[in-house]
Amino acid sequence: MNTLQTRILIALCLFSPQLLKADDSRPNIVFLFSDDLTTQAISAYKYGLELPPTPNFDRLANGGMLFENSFCGNSLCTPSRASVMTGLHSHKNGIVNLSGALDPQRPSWPKTLHRNGYTTAVFGKWHMKTKPNGFDDWEVFSGQGSYYNPELFSAKGSRRVEGHSTDIVTDIALDWLDVRDKSKPFAVMIQHKAPHRNWKPSLKELELYRDITFPEPASLFDNYQSRVAAANHKMGIDQHMRMASDLMLFKGDEAQKVLSRFTPEQRKAYLAAFEKENTEFLADPPTGKALVRWKYQRYMKNYLRCIAGVDRNVGRVLDKLDELKLTQNTIVVYCADQGFYLGEHGWFDKRWAYEESLRMPLIVRWPGKVKAGSRCAAMVQNIDYASTLLDVAGLKPDWQVHGVSLMPLLLNGGVTPADWRKTIYYRYIDGGHGVPQHSAIRTADYKLLHFDSPRNAAEKASLWELFDLNNDPQEMSNLAGHARYANKLNEMKKLFWQTRTFYDDTEESVWTNRRSKQYSPEDYIRLRRRR
Ligand code: CA
């Protein structure tokens, strides 16, 4: 082809996207997402206690890159999902708490891919109230969705599907891979409810770990000394975990209510699985610390069984990519919306800027591009995903984002460029589960928390918490009042305000109305103007 012919072809392609389709070899994207699946539970992470292996997460990590310092910006389901979609922190994307709804008009990375010739789909847990927008195909739960026999909603209406949600969502996604528009590259989001509370594993995993006693975290009986706000939590295994709905310890007709969506056969299998242990418990109920330990073990078993189901289904997706010969040209991203407490500080749940819930698992496999078995220590956040996934397709966000593309890390073996961010920003606004609104910054070595809306005089007197992450990785000792750390505290405070300004989150009073109000981006602008 001579120069003139090449020029004519380029011009034709520019004016006729159809011509581009004929040979569109841009990579496919498989975005695997789960809810509340924490890094401590992924064996490839080697973070926290030694827990059961997760062979398929590890398979993904062995074939790609594991991000050792991946964080969310607001440790809660809906806000984190909104950051993933929009590349923006909560204070700018309109979803600040669990009541938030993703504005259908708001730009997102799947929308931009769709507009630029990708076929797009989302299946499973959406959890942002409004209908998915920017997808050729979607079938999602309403709100939290159900573990068993869930109701699924699509453009065609709704249907109830029998089985366990993790298996069902995967089935739908695998079927879609067969029937998708094969003339285009694709991006599919496969999003599981598991292992969200109330932990109900699939019947396939119900017998796992039966005779195993899991190790306990050192802070299971934390007394919260030096951390005033933490003491006021409502997310303790001890006081706030419910025996029937959370732990499957049934009395009277409780099972009927907790397992109301189950078929008779599923219910029978469930009751049989827990019957012996429950009978033993009720014959001689433990109390005090022994009861906490019993609850911890039951919680861990069901939580980790749910994860074993996710892991098995991640394997099914990877096998399907192999079968369809798509592995080589498909980037697979695995992540979850935030971390979770597995008994650390006596807790389950998330929300805090402390490490276990601040961390987000992130593993990326991209054969031929990302070095297999590599690990990246750079600090990354969920605000980076939009830029990254568009970069995969050679695109950039066509709206203002907070995040940056992770491509320089992915393509360079995980080596952190000298100018990479040194600080991440966090702001929790929801206020549920006894966790007060707070903001934080984290550097490689230190973390500073600021309690934005103290609830009592004691919290008011302890607005700051400073942790030395190298010497106190479990964040048990707040150094904010220590004379020896006065200079470090001042330095971190300065950095905190600088970071808040950098992300244009200078308004402190906007969100003090808390959960009941659902803010839109317009509300945010209006409230800021009122200031
Ligand atoms: Ca979540």
Strand content: 5-15%
Give the number of domains.
3
Mean model confidence by pLDDT: 92
CATH class (first level) name of the largest domain: Alpha Beta
The CATH superfamily of the largest domain is: Alkaline Phosphatase, subunit A
Provide a count of the helices.
16
Radius of gyration: 24 Å
Hetero ligands:
calcium ion
| Largest β sheet strand count, sense and barrel closure | 10 strands, mixed
Backbone shape: globular
How is this structure best described in words?
This protein is an alpha/beta fold and 531 residues long. It has three domains: 282 residues, Alkaline Phosphatase, subunit A (3-Layer(aba) Sandwich); 70 residues, no CATH class; 100 residues, Arylsulfatase, C-terminal domain, CATH 3.30.1120.10. The protein has 16 helices and 14 strands. The longest helix has 36 residues. The radius of gyration is 24 Å and the shape is globular. It starts with a helix and ends with a helix. Bound molecules: calcium ion.
Provide a short characterization of the protein structure.
Helix content is 32%, strand content 15%. It is α/β, with parallel strands linked by helices and 531 residues long. The strands form two sheets. A ten-stranded mixed sheet has the order 6-5-4-3-7-1-8-9-2-10, with helices on both faces. Strands 11-12-13-14 form a four-stranded antiparallel sheet, with helices on one face.
